[in-house]
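Summarise this fold before class:
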Amino acid sequence: MNRLSLFTIAVMTSFCLGFSLNSILRKDQITSAKIPNLPDMKLGAFSVSLSVKDLSKSKEFYEKLGFSVFGGDLKNNYLIMKNESTLIGLFQGMFEDNILTFNPGWDENAEEVEGYQDVRTIQQYLKSTGEIIINPADENSTGPASFMIKDPDGNMILFDQHL
């Protein structure tokens, strides 16, 4: 091989190695970059709380999709419906818009999980990041509590701890 060929191969190899190494290092930096003081957020079971006009009709509709009643009561104007690990809350006349709901301390079967973060700890962290807390939980209390925030698009998010 002549010198030019060797030089070209060396430059191309260096470029490829450099590009590959940069991609690997950059990926590690991105995945390891965390917001300072961000706790390991354990938000618990997730469900969508839907504001419905007719609870009976909504119940029938979601049953067609394979959901079954998991909790609540028609007489109390709400049902919690479940399909495998998916939870949907149906609420008639309780709130206007749909709400994303997290239940710290519960799994999707409403069973207690170990090592969960208390709702007040989550609230304190979100408050420290500048989030506006709606209906804040009493931070001096223990046990069941809840609070809400809005995402940037105005969607309500409820953190509702039952333990």
